[in-house]
Design brief:
By secondary structure, this protein is of the alpha+beta class. The chain has 6 helices and 9 strands; from the N terminus they run ααβββαββαβαβββα. It has 3 domains: about 70 residues, no CATH class; about 80 residues, Immunoglobulin-like, CATH 2.60.40; about 50 residues, no CATH class. The strands form 2 sheets. The protein has a 6-stranded antiparallel beta sheet. The chain has a 3-stranded antiparallel beta sheet with strand order 7-8-9, with no helix packed on it.
């Protein structure tokens, strides 16, 4: 829940996995970044098994999600939208009026176990297709069994992958950008007045105006480049 709240995700270095120490001064110990990198490479090839591996996996995947869709967490559109559910044992909310991210977390586990879990309880997801970034499982919008959503972990963080009409989001594009893949080439153009025109993207079909997520990413690229140029 903390990682999907509004604002900046606050983490102590090395707390991406389990650390059996107290606060000051224990949390000032140097972080073993090499060990964290090795664990990340290890989990790229297999599913997490231990609690420490699960914590690292959950933390890493949510931080990657925040990088893909920053406006869902920071800015004027990063609002809180509660989602209907049939039980008080699950906290369910979406980010923003046009949600791109949904968080679902189980609560009061001891009482929940007395009621046979979530086998008869539902959550209503916004329209579209949703993928759990922790498991890769996809869910359609509408009423969904909580037992299905929380089958692997006591929490789920869902990213919208397609709209209600089935139009796919540019998730693969964002993932490739995260990994540094040169999957598109953006080129600025000039209008006759000499002012920079809107950025365009060179594709196999020719130069087209940017729209959607690709256009947003291109604009962010040029905004950052112009800002860096302005500061020398």
């Amino acid at each position: 829940i903390q990682l999907t709240c509004l604002g900046v995700a606050d983490l102590y270095q090395s707390c991406e996995t389990l650390q059996n120490y107290l606060v000051d001064p224990d949390n000032r110990a140097p972080a073993d970044f090499a060990a964290l990198a090795d664990l990340g490479s290890y989990l790229d090839r297999r599913d997490p098994l231990t609690l420490a591996e699960e914590k690292f996996h959950v933390t890493r995947e949510i931080l990657r999600l925040r990088r893909r869709v920053p406006d869902a967490f920071v800015g004027p559109t990063a609002a809180y939208r509660p989602l209907p559910s049939s039980t008080g044992h699950a906290l369910c909310f979406a980010r923003g009026d046009d949600p791109q991210v949904v968080t679902i977390a189980a609560r009061l586990h001891r009482d929940l176990a007395k009621q046979d879990g979530f086998t008869e309880h539902m959550v209503v997801l916004p329209e579209g297709t949703w993928r759990d970034v922790l498991t890769g499982t996809e869910h359609a919008g509408g009423s969904v069994l909580l037992a299905d959503v929380l089958r692997r972990y006591p929490c789920a963080v869902l990213e919208k992958t397609a709209g209600p009409d089935g139009t796919a989001q540019a998730e693969q594009l964002a993932d490739a950008l995260d990994n540094g893949d040169p999957i598109f080439r953006a080129t600025p153009r000039q209008d006759p007045s000499g002012r920079p025109a809107p950025a365009s993207v060179a594709t196999d079909e020719g130069e087209t105006e940017t729209t959607g997520l690709l256009g947003w990413l291109t604009k962010r690229f040029f905004d950052r480049t112009n800002a860096e140029d302005g500061h020398g």
